[in-house]
Design a protein that fits this description.
Layout lengths: L3 H7 L2 H28 L13 H7 L4 E2 L9 E2 L6 E5 L2 E5 L16 E5 L2 E4 L5 H11 L25 H10 L7 H9 L33 E3 L2 E3 L24 E7 L22 E4 L16 E3 L8 E2 L3 E2 L1 E2 L2
Parallel strand pairs: 9-12
Antiparallel strand pairs: 1-14, 2-3, 3-6, 4-5, 6-13, 7-8, 9-10, 10-11
Length: 326
């Protein structure tokens, strides 16, 4: 067979140009067909499914996996109980009180850097309305006497009179768990080591606690002292007292159950990454102070503890979610 160069030598000049052009066109056609075949293997914009929202994932998928930082979203709602969730990005923060904090107890020390993975936390404490819905849908028989302070006027107040086990049961139903103590503190103070959720300057009117000067309207009348009624207030009542991430009521209103066992000297040897508390113990951690708390009790680093089987009118909780379905 003659080579292409031999054939071209016998052709007139203008015909050679036409012949070359013909081969160029054929080559371009094959190239385009090949590209189109490659494109057909990729989904078109209409075929690409939008990323599922967290509410849909929690509701529909039984399989769970850790949330990668790249997929975390900021404005999500849990479809199970309607709760708003706030993203707390993973990374280091300053946990515990410094030696310059004269109001700190020894169980808040030493101050150290702790690294936690990303998670979502409820923007507000779990309310009476949400807890009543949980009881109605699950038939859970609570240990605590939460109904004592629930009426049509307190639907949006944080639920109280719940034991640690009651709180855990709700969290499981909602697709989450109680926050670890380290997670709770990061959500309350952020990464700048602030003393209170709103900053370093004390202001009794940025949270529901004993020294609050603002008139207590819509208060659940739980305790009376010196002709003043103290009690819970509707969640989200203090917009200027939010944490750096926009989480409400991390100071005052109710003390919040955490997942950790309490150990007074735990900070001295605790892990620097995702600490989950001692392996065992008798008491569980409570954070945030409450409506009858003193100034030192509503600092971000303040720690309380109690028997997990106990409940009282100061104890409530919120939920965190760090694992979602695919």
């Amino acid at each position: 067979m003659k080579s292409l160069s031999a054939i071209k030598k016998k052709l007139p000049g203008n015909f050679t140009s036409i012949f070359s052009l013909f081969f160029i066109i054929v080559a371009m056609i094959f190239f385009c067909v090949g590209c189109n075949r490659g494109d057909k293997q990729k989904p078109t914009p209409n075929e690409i499914k939008p990323e599922a929202t967290m509410s849909a994932i929690i509701e529909s998928s039984p399989k769970k996996t850790n949330i990668p930082d790249s997929t975390l979203k900021k404005d999500l709602v849990n479809s199970i109980d309607g709760a708003e969730l706030v993203l707390i990005p993973g990374g280091e923060f300053s946990m515990g009180a410094t030696d310059t904090d004269k109001e700190a107890d020894e169980d808040e020390k030493p101050n150290r850097k702790v690294d936690v993975k990303s998670f979502y936390i409820y923007k507000f404490e779990v309310t009476n309305r949400q807890y009543a819905d949980f009881i109605g849908k699950t038939g859970h028989k609570p240990e605590g006497e939460w109904k004592l302070l629930h009426n049509k006027f307190t639907d949006d107040h944080p639920v109280v009179e719940v034991s640690w086990e009651d709180a855990v049961a709700y969290c499981k139903w909602a697709g989450g768990r109680l926050p670890a103590e380290a997670e709770w503190e990061k959500a309350a103070r952020g990464t700048d080591g602030r003393i209170y959720p709103w900053g370093n300057r004390w202001d009794p009117d940025k949270c529901n606690m004993k020294l609050m000067k603002t008139k207590r309207t819509n208060v659940a009348r739980i305790e009376e002292h010196d002709d003043i009624w103290y009690g819970t207030l509707p969640v989200g009542s203090f917009k200027t007292g939010v944490s750096p991430y926009g989480v409400f009521d991390m100071a005052g209103n109710v003390e919040e159950w955490c997942s950790d066992y309490f150990q007074e000297d735990y900070y001295k040897d605790s892990p620097s990454r995702n600490p989950r508390g001692p392996r065992d113990g008798e008491a569980r951690v409570l954070r945030g102070g409450g409506f009858f708390a003193k100034k030192e009790d509503v600092r971000c680093t303040s720690r309380e503890d109690d028997d997990p089987a106990k409940w009282c009118n100061l104890y409530g909780f919120r939920v965190v979610i760090d694992e979602i379905g695919e």
